[in-house]
Amino acid sequence: MEPYIVGITGGSASGKTSFLNALNADFSKEEVCLISFDNYYKPLAQIPLDPNGQPNFDEPEALDIEAVVNDLEKLKNGQSYERAEYNFNVENWVPKILKHHSAKIIIVEGLFIFSEPEILKHLNLRIYIDAKDDLRWHRRVSRDRTERNVDAVTSKYQWQNHVEPSESKYLIPYKEIADIIILNNTSFDVGLQILKNHFKQQIQSNP
């Protein structure tokens, strides 16, 4: 049987990474493989610029979508591949080489998975993780500061000029095609358990 393909999207700082970490903790690499858009950004010199000349990572052109599709198709065909972890331009961060092997369930995670037809057509299940805008904003500022060495002024600029316009164009209009919407204002535990149970059923049906 072909792998079961699950697409997970949501706005910036909605909790996708935390959700995926909690989800993957219950499954082996033979059972679940994750493709994350975070590792498909183009080199900084190829990132599109906004009207003020600032790199905009929230446009589809910032990502190598073709590579995502190619790697997804490799996994569907039972093949493996390697890809360097993207370092978000943080100095002195040596990226790891990530090894991906085909599995019974393949998760594709990223902002544009519903708006890109070549990715959307592969998805058997579409999941949208949602949270209040003000909560996501505070999470984003904290993450930018601690994980990506981005100051609050830059975070605010990117949120207003990149994140919000991109979500309005490439994310929110596609929310209605999600099969499941998981709210993460305080906790995603209920949605997480439902998805874990669903995964276990899929794995059992694909011995």
Please give the structural blueprint.
Blueprint: E1 4-10, H1 16-24, E2 32-36, H2 65-76, E3 81-84, E4 97-100, E5 105-109, H3 117-120, E6 125-130, H4 133-147, H5 152-170, E7 180-183, H6 189-204
Parallel strand pairs: 1-5, 1-6, 2-5, 6-7
Antiparallel strand pairs: 3-4
Description:
The protein is α/β, with parallel strands linked by helices. It has one domain (about 5-205): P-loop containing nucleotide triphosphate hydrolases (Rossmann fold, 3-Layer(aba) Sandwich). The protein is about 35% helix and about 15% strand. The chain has six helices and seven strands; from the N terminus they run βαβαβββαβααβα. The protein has helices at about 15-25, 65-75, 115-120, 135-145, 150-170, 190-205, and strands at about 5-10, 30-35, 80-85, 95-100, 105-110, 125-130, 180-185. The strands form two sheets. The protein has a five-stranded parallel β-sheet with strand order 2-5-1-6-7, with helices on both faces. Helix 4 (about 135-145) crosses helix 5 (about 150-170). The longest helix is centred in the C-terminal third of the chain and has 19 residues, at about 150-170. It is globular, with a radius of gyration of 17 Å. It starts with a strand and ends with a helix. The mean pLDDT is about 95.
Q: In brief, what are we looking at here?
A:
By secondary structure, the protein is an alpha/beta fold. The protein is 36% helix and 17% strand.
Descriptive keywords:
about 210 residues; Rossmann fold; five-stranded parallel sheet; two-stranded antiparallel ribbon; globular
